[in-house]
Amino acid sequence: MKTAPTPEVIDRLKKEYPDADTELEWSNPLELLVAVILSAQCTDVRVNQVTDSLFEKYRSAEDYAAAPREELEEDIRPTGFFRNKAKSIQGMARAVIEDHGGEVPRTMPELVALPGVGRKTANVILGNVFGVNEGVVVDTHVKRLSNRLGFTDEENPEKVERDLIPLVGEKDRTLFAHLLIFHGRRICKARKPLCPDCLLNDICPSAEI
DNA sequence: CTCCCGATAT
DNA sequence: ATATCAGGAG
């Protein structure tokens, strides 16, 4: 399988989406961490609808830890998987209090050790909050576009990440994920990709025009 | 691998 | 009717 040149892809998408950034709304590390946990298998639009009021009610890790489980479940219900997510958020909050003095930790091992936090979520926090780009965020969009563009043949997200790391300079990794996510939502959609409208269709191995 | 959740698009 | 949505745990 051929592969599109990564720098060219980044360059073109950067011009198309100069404002590419997270579309989750947050104002501190804990808020982004909660928003990312809620974002699993859910659109960012819906997450933002929920967090708009959630973040007024829960202002600290202590607030999440102290809440009755069932009440938190109702507060996040529209994001789906609400029982698992409420359990994750409370487990995360308690671990943050117990092990990190109520502050979101800044290293990969510490983040991944939190309940409900995997490499994808950890990479989002490290990149967007702390400017640390040792890894690459591989979510459903980054995985799909990386497969279609020929950056990797792997299906497992962690293997996809290992293939992407040498292809993307550390400085570009956070932007890279945002660019692929923007393009994935608008053009390179999962179900019916709009290849004729895609600015990468001349260098994409999967393009069908 | 399955389960978790439900709104939306196709 | 079914695939998909900023995944992670058991």
Describe this entry's structure for a reader:
With 209 residues, the chain is mostly helical. The protein has 2 domains: 6-19 and 135-197, Endonuclease Iii, domain 2; 29-130, Hypothetical protein, domain 2 (Endonuclease III, domain 1). It contains 11 helices and no strands. Helix 2 (29-38) runs antiparallel to helix 8 (119-130) and helix 5 (69-76) packs across helix 6 (82-100). The longest helix is centred in the middle third of the chain and has 19 residues, at 82-100. The protein is elongated. The two termini are 18 Å apart. It binds a DNA duplex (10 and 10 nucleotides) through helix 2, helix 3, helix 6, helix 8 and helix 9.
Quick description:
The protein is mainly alpha-helical and 209 residues long. The chain contains eleven helices and no strands. It has two domains: 77 residues, Endonuclease Iii, domain 2 (Orthogonal Bundle); 102 residues, Hypothetical protein, domain 2 (Endonuclease III, domain 1, Orthogonal Bundle).
Instruction: Tell me the number of strands.
Output: 0
Give the radius of gyration: 18 Å
Low-pLDDT stretches: none
CATH superfamily of the largest domain: Hypothetical protein, domain 2
CATH class of the largest domain: Mainly Alpha
SSE pattern? HHHHHHHHHHH
Total number of domains: 2
Average pLDDT, all residues: 97
Rounded to the nearest angstrom, the distance between the terminal CA atoms is 18 Å
Question: Strand portion, in percent?
Answer: under 5%
